[in-house]
């Protein structure tokens, strides 16, 4: 099985915390889709021959900023009919009834909605385009139109976000009965407006203790509500794990199309240049601008440890790993269950340290 990721780097405006590769040069959207189609042709041999494509993920940036005609051109060229899961990331501000209906007709069967918060103050602080009412309205609209696989993103540990405000966000999310929730701790990426504000002393950062309590509450409340915590940041109702993201953790090959997109074929990783104009120029000249790293056995092993420990399944407890993991098992940071090593909630709080200790040099 294989996956296709398509990166749409366009955003109408920039959020204060965003460190992703994206651009507000919206005039380039249609030309960019031309380039994506060309790249797909140029790389027709990238995925193992005969490997069926199981998932397609249109991510960003803001893919919902594409005009329907451009998205349709793109999806028509991809093996949508054979894919089990076709996801688009969407910003609530772009989600009109017409777009939602058109996306379904194009074969999109999963929405990942960038809600981040239902709290107007938090949304303004993040410089998100949408308001709380709008987010609620479009979730209901998508459900009424017939989408049965909806994920929403929620962010926590934001300055001025109290535990009560976080709990209210979680309750609002649960009230919709969406199938999937992804939740991320706010991070301060160098060079972002948020990072600069912190440098100037213009905000008070949430301390680690409160951030950990918020995460613990999230895990407990979502578990009570029937969501399985299947990866550090991801929770799903039974049968609704993100198949595409799971493939990143399961060593499945995938091709990443677009500026800044990453690809993996089991032997190497490669990533396209994260510069819009360079990407467009080179692709139109028939060349894919990318860098490649061939993975050594040690790198592959370490990636397996790193990605596996992020999941609720964990990693196989080999003698080598058990030896290194003993201090963490003894202190309850890792559990050794049915031959697997699995990070506990306490362990997740220091997961990077654990992973580093378990890796090979
Ligand atoms: S919409 Fe997403 S990619 Fe665009 S600026 Fe905001 S966080 Fe970054």
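Sequence proposed for the structure above (361 residues):
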């Amino acid at each position: 099985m294989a996956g296709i990721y398509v990166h749409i780097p366009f955003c109408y405006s920039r959020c204060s915390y965003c460190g992703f590769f994206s651009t507000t040069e919206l005039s380039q959207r249609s030309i960019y889709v031309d380039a994506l189609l060309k790249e797909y042709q140029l790389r027709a041999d990238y995925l193992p021959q005969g490997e069926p494509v199981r998932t397609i993920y249109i991510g960003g940036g803001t893919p919902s900023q594409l005009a329907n005609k451009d998205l349709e051109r793109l999806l028509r060229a991809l093996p949508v009919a054979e894919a089990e899961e076709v996801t688009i990331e969407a910003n609530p501000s772009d989600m009109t009834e017409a777009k939602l209906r058109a996306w379904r007709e194009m074969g999109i069967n999963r929405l990942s909605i960038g809600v981040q918060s239902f709290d107007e103050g938090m949304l303004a602080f993040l410089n998100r385009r949408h308001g709380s009412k709008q987010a609620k309205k479009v979730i209901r609209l998508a459900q009424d139109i017939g989408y049965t696989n909806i994920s929403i993103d929620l962010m926590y540990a934001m300055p001025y976000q109290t535990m009560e405000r976080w709990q209210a966000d979680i309750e609002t999310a649960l009230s919709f009965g969406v199938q999937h929730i992804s939740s991320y701790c706010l991070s301060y990426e160098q060079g972002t407006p948020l990072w600069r504000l912190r440098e100037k002393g213009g905000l008070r950062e949430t301390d680690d203790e409160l951030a950990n309590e918020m995460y613990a509450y999230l895990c407990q409340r979502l578990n009570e509500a029937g969501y399985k915590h299947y990866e550090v940041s991801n929770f799903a109702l039974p049968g609704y794990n993100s198949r595409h993201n799971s493939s990143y953790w399961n060593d499945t090959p995938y091709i990443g199309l677009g500026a800044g997109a990453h690809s993996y074929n089991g032997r190497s990783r490669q990533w396209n240049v994260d510069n819009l104009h360079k990407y467009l120029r080179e692709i139109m000249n028939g060349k894919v601008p990318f860098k490649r790293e061939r993975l050594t056995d040690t790198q592959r092993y370490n990636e397996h440890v790193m990605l596996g420990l992020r999941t609720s399944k964990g990693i196989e407890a080999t003698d080598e790993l058990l030896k290194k993991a003993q201090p963490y098992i003894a202190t309850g940071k890792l559990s050794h269950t049915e031959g697997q090593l699995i990070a506990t909630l306490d362990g997740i709080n220091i997961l990077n340290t654990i992973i580093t200790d378990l890796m090979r040099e």
